[in-house]
Write a structure and sequence with these properties.
- The protein is of the alpha+beta class.
- It has a domain at 38-171: Jelly Rolls.
- The protein has helices at residues 3-27, 98-103, 158-167, 180-187, and strands at 38-46, 55-60, 66-70, 78-80, 83-84, 93-96, 113-116, 122-130, 137-138, 156-157.
- The strands form three sheets. Strands 1-8-3-6 form a four-stranded antiparallel sheet.
- A hairpin with a 2-residue loop joins β4 and β5 (83-84).
- It is globular, with a radius of gyration of 18 Å.
- It starts with a helix and ends in a 26-residue tail after the last helix.
- The relative contact order is 0.19.
- The structure holds 2-oxoglutaric acid and fe (ii) ion.
- Residues 43, 57, 62, 69, 78, 113, 115, 125, 127 line the site of 2-oxoglutaric acid (AKG).
- Fe (ii) ion binds at residues 60, 62, 67, 113.
- This is Fe2OG dioxygenase domain-containing protein.
- Residues 36-133 form the Fe2OG dioxygenase domain.
- Belongs to the iron/ascorbate-dependent oxidoreductase family.
Length: 213
């Protein structure tokens, strides 16, 4: 793949991120004025026969605002809330991260996911993460806070939050099931109330065994 193609793709998917952010904000009667940074990544998994049954990426939640995944068209393995999401060519998969959860005062939820190796082959996936500038304070917008929905989380900067993830060896936002309790405990350093890992998926279709026309 040439650099030019990658740059074009990255620009298009960034515009997609902004479009989704804008529509999301509008659906809440807000205006999206944010120029947040995007991180673009190509994940290549070189699975061997020994990898089968093991994790390619351990159970984790994403840290940023929004993630757009373009899955490998032929090789699946992404598991969202214990359910495989089979590749569906021509579609993008979107999930929210912790920033969206804090920003919306808990209305938007992040979701636990992981990657399992199912066959000895190569899997390539393109991931785009809409993040937040390091020094930016992440907090619930006033529009999401009222007497019925009191503020759930104290403001934190994205940098402090990232450091917390790294200091607990949850590199790239990945953490294993065994230390997830510790993770939740640490997160309460930043959150006014104990963090509630509500297992809800937003904007993710259940692709199941569906085939495209
Ligand atoms: O490779 C995948 O299917 C997902 C990767 C992922 O969840 C991540 O990089 O945060
Ligand atoms: Fe992820």
């Amino acid at each position: 793949m040439s650099r030019e193609v990658i740059e074009k793709y990255a620009q298009a998917v960034y515009e997609q991120c902004v479009d989704i952010g804008r529509k999301l904000a509008e659906s809440y009667g807000l205006v999206w004025l944010i120029g947040w940074p995007c991180q673009f990544r190509i994940n290549k998994y070189n699975y061997t026969p020994e990898s089968v049954g093991f994790s390619g990426v351990q159970l984790h939640t994403d840290s940023g605002f929004l993630t757009i995944l373009q899955d490998d068209e032929n090789v699946g393995g992404l598991e969202v809330m214990d359910k495989f999401v089979d590749p569906c060519p021509g579609t993008l998969l979107i999930n929210f991260g912790h920033v969206a959860q804090a920003w919306s005062n808990g209305r938007l939820c992040n979701v636990k996911h992981r990657v399992q190796c199912r066959e000895a082959t190569t899997r390539v996936l393109i991931a785009t993460f809409l993040l937040v500038p390091k020094e930016e304070a992440v907090e619930a917008l006033p529009e999401f806070v009222d007497s019925k929905y009191p503020r759930l989380y104290v403001p934190f900067t994205y940098e402090d939050y990232r450091k917390l993830r790294l200091s607990t060896k949850m590199r790239a936002g990945h953490f294993s099931g065994s230390n997830s309790a510790m993770w939740m405990e640490l997160l309460t350093v930043f959150l006014a109330k104990p963090y509630c890992m509500r297992n809800r998926v937003l904007s993710i279709r259940d692709f199941g065994n569906q085939t495209r026309n």
